[in-house]
Structures are given as structure tokens and as C-alpha cells.
Task: inverse folding
């Protein structure tokens, strides 16, 4: 190293240092962030997750993780061994794929959804309605493969919503979906839930209000997780879904554009064995208003992130382009693992194991709730999904509540219910629920976690 | 099925059908799309890819795919077998990970980049400058793992740019990056390239113009692929990068916010053996203005999509939040494959094979160019990456040009050079280049593809 070179280096570094005085301490506030960058807030769950990680003795029933013990380790090993053992096909699996997803996997998704819908149509639903899906409506070219269904939810917002636009959500709804919207600058309006899902009567009221106050043109779609809804566990019958669609359609003329229904079927296959689920709207004649989203991550393995959507044809191209900009297509290896799992029947075999496992775990949590929770609290017994949704009479459950503080002292975490209600200026946000998950918890944690929450509630004089 | 039920069903379907008359044929134009949805155009390459797929006899040297023959099939099988053979650790691999990425992989990324930068600092660069990275600057908590580096480029735009903001790019640049920006509503200004990368003198001119015409506050960052640039193959020495940073910094006060430099190191490791690469800016003292992006996809396997970034601390949190909204974290399985590949040395062993393979393929293409191309065309011999960038004197190469038509007739595809130039209203877009890739082509296709393009050129009387 020559002296001259050292000097040059120093001079450059001095310049850099002195340059830093222009903007002394950079924070997100003065860092030149976009509006999205500025408004994207920390997800509400992150603090709870940090807390769970930092305290080893804590039991967390807050996060919707999936069952660890039943993860398909051997199955995945065998699938990959099969996939990569043929030198003729293996390179394709490790190469780029197409942006919208592996064609075989897309066909499998379409066929699987059609089969499930057809099966459901043989059962009359609570509204006395049989769905009669057209036979030809599924085409692999209406589907898209994504990085979990969350990426698709994100892209739906990008495709349909400008900042300031309004999305209708259920009261309560999947709280992560609210974070996505918040970041995108979306406003929310809550639609009341009854035991059959979103109320079409209240939906009409919300739309009528929007029409009256001139905000209807900003309303873009209704988001509804229709199977074992997160957090309430409610499943929406086909007849209700059709009524929701009709209600939306009645306001399209005044909105000036289609009003879509986004049907999130993430938990559709996580039902406890023996239950039938209603047909989806993806097989209804109104499918040009329906965006159907699903995932293989929760039913198979969350570490293998593959989701999918069945889209109206006129939106498919745009979402596919956005996907191409996001990432040039979901990992081909992951897609091939799922494709092969479906084809070999390993996926369905695993699903059955998982359904039995969750059936057992939900039963275990139910027994603990019956044993340890005060009589005044109420909850519905879920028939699928990963959650109990518990209502506490006359007591807040939020991060600043006595109940939450008491639970923390008892070394247990639940998800405060107010996380699941959108910021809707037209109503007061309920704050007396908790979402409790049996998904990722061990049997020990389920029983003892509920016992601890029960103690916390009694400590707050809830009996 | 009762008659009543059938009737109900029919009525509903009739209502749906009649409802469809409200908006007869839905197209993206009347589908209620967002501004982003409306402006996201088809990627320019998609037509070429369709064409290549539809004509079996065509040789495509247009797309930057990677070498099929050397994909790490056995390595990947062994890695996964190792990962999933222990029941103690396997479930973690198939479960959700953390949003910013596996902590071990993040450390490996940081260490690897630091080692490469340190090694580079022992070599004086073309500007006579030694980089002296501080020892303590890398921390795993400045890194993030993404779905390929493309997702990170997307999120950088989301984090820093509102529609109408300006990003500075090289003339020419990575054309997919231009698609991302187009979708986001970003405007571009081109900065001239010389043999040492983006010209800091022209950068100053561009910034000065922006200052004069009042657009400087909308300028957010300079995007530069600094290693074996796509498409030109140019590598930017450390001294030049420092000068670019200094130039940007001189305009920060007038811009009113930091002016970042996004250093895209996608091809850094795809160098032909024996060459040293300059230190990156991630190890410079000015790292609070530098966003460093890299990928394991191209050097290992494009079907395993894992990219990464090293970010200024004040941006890390925001990008991590956006990533959490995108997808809740990159597939844990894919991250573990790469982690283990790095730890076991399989990654580096594969990289060496790949470097030798691309060295051979580029040599093969060079020989074909020397044998079959007219003397009047010019190109630089790349020392890494996947491309030759060829300049044709006085003849257009675009999709509507005689040269392209002639190439099509010869059954060969190249990437028209104008794809790689941004829509910059302040200069005319050059249209007399072609990007030719030896990445995914077979040896046969390389030789014969070049021969065919040579014939096409001669057919257009280019000699």
C-alpha cells in the first residue's frame, strides 16, 4: 500500500464523515420515506411475539402458529428425494418457473376446489340453498400461485385500492389483513357478524350510508374469511355468501365500478373431521366478482409457503403482472413439493392427521375452558381453524387492561380482541374479547395456559 | 333435494345473471382497478418468452436464465436430507420463521459480504483507492432475507418512493427494474455509463438539472448494479462508487432528504474465476446512504428463491414491516437450504463449478461472435455475469426493426437494447444494441444462435 493511496482513502473518509453533518441523525422521520414508508406501522402482534421470546416461562396462546409435532418431516423428505432423484426432471425444478405458477399445480388447485365445491353442493345449507356450480368454470388459467395467500391479499389491495379507498371487513376480522391495509392507506368499515357470517342486512346499511355520504365510489370490496373465520371460527353458508354478493351488486351502479367479494378460504381444509364445508363462491355464477384465496401453508407446512388464488379473468392478467414485479414467481422447488404431495396423496393423508390433531387440541382447550374459566365468559365451540374467541362481560382485555396485566403476571399471553377490529370511525371498537389459539401450543401449554388465563380473570374479579 | 330448494337456487342464479347486465363486459379498464393496477403494464420480455415457448425450433438468447446442466441437484438433495433427518431440528425448518429471516443466515450473509469486502480492500482499484471498511459495521440486524433480491428492490421503491418520484438509473440498466418502477409510478432519469460504471460527472449534471427545474426533491436514489452490470457487464470500482456517493451527498441539502445509492450486487459472485471484485459500499463509512442487495438464486439455483439486503439501520425497521405485510417472511425451508449450503461449503464448491461453466460459455459465445458477427459491430468481453452487450452501428434492433424481423426469420431471439433504457424525456433512447445471454443456453444454442444473429445482421446489410 502506498502512502498516496492511504491519503486518498483518508480524504474520502473524512469527506464522508463531514458530509454526515448535513443530516445528523437519520430516523425514519427524516429519511426521505414515501407515504407508505411513513405510515407502515409495526404489526400489533410484534410486541407480543418479542415478549414471548424474551420470557422463557411464558405460555403464548396469542399467535396462530401451527402444530409442530405433526409437521410432515418424513413426507417432505420423501417428496424431495423423489423430485430430485431423476436427472431428467430435476433441473426444471431448480430453475425459474413461470410467473403465475407451475401449470400442473394450477390445474390441481382448480380441480381440487371444484371437487370440494361439487361435494358441498350435495348438502343443503342453513339457508336452504343448493349451489349448482357450472362444470366448466374452473380453468387453470384463472388461478395464480403465490407466496402464501398473504401475498395475494397484498396484491389484491395493490390491484384494486388507492390510498383512501375503503375495504369492508367483518367485525371482527383477521387482524394481519388490517395491517396490510393500514400500510396501503386503506380505510375500513366493519360489517357485523352473526352466527352465519357477515350480516347482509348490516352490509346493506353500511353501503347505504356510504352512498348517502358520498364515499361509495371509494368502496372496493368486502373481505371475508368464510371458513372457520379467524378469529371467531364462524363458517359462512353458501346462501349467505350469495346474499352478500347480491347486496354488493345492488350498489355497483352507484359505486361506478364492480364491488368485489374476496373470499379467504385459508382455513377451509383445517376442519375437524366429519364436518362438511359449504361450496365456495369461486364456483358460483357470480365468479366475475369473486376473488378466492387459499393456502397450502397452514394445512401442510408453514415453512413451505405456497398459496393460491382463483381470480376473475379480467383481473388475472393485472395481478399476474404485479406478481411478476414482486418476485418473478414463487419458488419452483416449493411448488413442485406441493404438486407432488397432492398427486401422491401425501397431502391428503397429512391433512387427515392434522384434522385429527386439531380436533384433539381444540377438545383439550374446550375442557380447560370448562374447568378453569369463570362462568360469565362465553365462547363458541369451533368446528375448524385454530382459535377460540372468548367474550368477557364488562371487562377490557386490551394491552393496557387489568386483565392483560394480570395474565402477564400469570405468565400467559392471549391476543387482545381489539386487534381484530378495524379502525372504523362509525362505531366504537369492542375491547372485551380474546383470541386464544390452540394451533402451535403443546398439550401442556393448552391446559396450563387456559388455567393461567382463568386465574387472571378471577384475579380481576370476573367470576 | 326439495322443489323449494331447487327454486331458491334458480332464483338466486337468475338474479345473478340479470345482475351481470349492470356491467356487461368487464375489462381491466372498467374493473375498478387502482392507479397501480391501471398503469402496471405487461413486462416487455413476456412477448419474447411467449414466442420462445410457442416455436420449438427457435433459439432464445434473450432471457437471462441460468445454466441448466450445472444446477445443484445432488447438493440440494443431500442438504435437505441432512436438514430433515433429525427429528429434533426438522420441525423448526418446516414452521414459520421470523419476518426478517433466519438469524444464522443473516449472520452468514453479513460475514460473507464483510469477508469479500475485506479481501477486495487489499487490491488497489482503478481509481488508486483502497477501501478501509470499519470492522464492526456488519451486524446481522442490518440484514434482511427476501424472496430473491427482486422483492427487496420492490420494497425499496415502496419504502422510499411515492408515484411521481424520480429514480436515477444507468443508461442502460437492468430492464426488469424499470418494470418495477413503471408499475409504481416512478419516473426515471438516465445517468451515462463509462467503462468504470455510472459517470459521476454526468450524475452531477443530472442532479444540477433537477435542482434547476425544481424536481430535485422528488429524486430519491441512484440504482446501480455494480458488479458485471446487467446488461453491459461493467464493474464499478470502489473509488467510482465513493465519488457517486459524494456527488449525491452534495445535493442532499437541496433535495431536503437523503439521496441513497442502491447497490445491486446480484452478479457479484458470478465472476469468471481468477478475477477480483471491488469492495462494496456496504462496508464504506457512508453505509447510512447505501442499500446493498444480493441474491443466492442465480449463483445457486433460481428455483430456490432467496435474496438479501444490508440496509441502513434507520430503514431496516420500515422495510422489515413492509416485508411482514408482503408475506410474513421468506420460506423457512429455502432459507435453511441456503444456510446449510453456506455452512457446509457446498455453496462455494458449486459456485466454483458455476464460475468455470460460465467462463467456458462466455468464451464459446466470444468465439462465435468473432466467427459469425460482422466486423462493424462492437462489444466488450465480460469478466462475469451472463451477457454480451453488442452495439450495432447505424441500425435499429427494436421489436419493429429489420434486424429483429430478420432474426425472427432466422429463428433466433435476442433482447432489443432499447428495453434496457429508461423512458427519460431528457434524452433520446438509443435503439442500436442487443443483449445476448449465454446463461441458460446450451453450447449448441450459443454457437448456432450467434451464427443466426450474424446471418440476420448480414441480411440487413450490416457488414
Result:
Amino acid at each position: 500500500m502506498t502512502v498516496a493511496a492511504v491519503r486518498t482513502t483518508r480524504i474520502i473518509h473524512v469527506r464522508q464523515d463531514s458530509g454526515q453533518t448535513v443530516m445528523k441523525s437519520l430516523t425514519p422521520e427524516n429519511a426521505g420515506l414515501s407515504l407508505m414508508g411513513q405510515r407502515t406501522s409495526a404489526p400489533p402482534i410484534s410486541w407480543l411475539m418479542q415478549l414471548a421470546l424474551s420470557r422463557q416461562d411464558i405460555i403464548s396462546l396469542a399467535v396462530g402458529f401451527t402444530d409442530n409435532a405433526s409437521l410432515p418431516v418424513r413426507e417432505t423428505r420423501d417428496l424431495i428425494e423423489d423430485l430430485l432423484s431423476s436427472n431428467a426432471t430435476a433441473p426444471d425444478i431448480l430453475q425459474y418457473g413461470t410467473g403465475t405458477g407451475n401449470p400442473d399445480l394450477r390445474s390441481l388447485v382448480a380441480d381440487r376446489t371444484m371437487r370440494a365445491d361439487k361435494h358441498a353442493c350435495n348438502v343443503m345449507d342453513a339457508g336452504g340453498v343448493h349451489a349448482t356450480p357450472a362444470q366448466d368454470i374452473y380453468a387453470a388459467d384463472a388461478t395464480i400461485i403465490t407466496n402464501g395467500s398473504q401475498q395475494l391479499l397484498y396484491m389484491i389491495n395493490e390491484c384494486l385500492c388507492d390510498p383512501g379507498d375503503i375495504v369492508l371487513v367483518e367485525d371482527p376480522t383477521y387482524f394481519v389483513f388490517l395491517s396490510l391495509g393500514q400500510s396501503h392507506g386503506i380505510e375500513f368499515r366493519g360489517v357485523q357478524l352473526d352466527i352465519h357470517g357477515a350480516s347482509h342486512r348490516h352490509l346493506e346499511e353500511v353501503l347505504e350510508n356510504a352512498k348517502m355520504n358520498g364515499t361509495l365510489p371509494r368502496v372496493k370490496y368486502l373481505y371475508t374469511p368464510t371458513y372457520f373465520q379467524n378469529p371467531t371460527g364462524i363458517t359462512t353458508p353458501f346462501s349467505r355468501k350469495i346474499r352478500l354478493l347480491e347486496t354488493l351488486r345492488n350498489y355497483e351502479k352507484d359505486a361506478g365500478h364492480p364491488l368485489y367479494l374476496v373470499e379467504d378460504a385459508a382455513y377451509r381444509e383445517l376442519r375437524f373431521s366429519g364436518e362438511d364445508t359449504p361450496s365456495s363462491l369461486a364456483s358460483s355464477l357470480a365468479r366475475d366478482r369473486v376473488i378466492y384465496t387459499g393456502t397450502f401453508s397452514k394445512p401442510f407446512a408453514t415453512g413451505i409457503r405456497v398459496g393460491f388464488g382463483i381470480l376473475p379473468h379480467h383481473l388475472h392478467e393485472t395481478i399476474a403482472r404485479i406478481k411478476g414485479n414482486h418476485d418473478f414467481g414463487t419458488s419452483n422447488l416449493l411448488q413442485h413439493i406441493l404438486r407432488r404431495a397432492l398427486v401422491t396423496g401425501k397431502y391428503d393423508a397429512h391433512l387427515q392427521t392434522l384434522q385429527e390433531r386439531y380436533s384433539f387440541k381444540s377438545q383439550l382447550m374446550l375442557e380447560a375452558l370448562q374447568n378453569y374459566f369463570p362462568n360469565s365468559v362465553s365462547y363458541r365451540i369451533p368446528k375448524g381453524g385454530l382459535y377460540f374467541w372468548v367474550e368477557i362481560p364488562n371487562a377490557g382485555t386490551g394491552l393496557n387492561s387489568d386483565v392483560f396485566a394480570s395474565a402477564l403476571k400469570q405468565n400467559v399471553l392471549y391476543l387482545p380482541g381489539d386487534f381484530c377490529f378495524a379502525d372504523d370511525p362509525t362505531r366504537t371498537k369492542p375491547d372485551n374479547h380474546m383470541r386464544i389459539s390452540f394451533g402451535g401450543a403443546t398439550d401442556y401449554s393448552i391446559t396450563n395456559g387456559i388455567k393461567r388465563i382463568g386465574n387472571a380473570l378471577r384475579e380481576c374479579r370476573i367470576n
User: Anything to note?
Assistant: Chain A touches chain B through 116 residues (CB under 8 Å). The first strand of chain A starts at residue 59 and ends at 60.
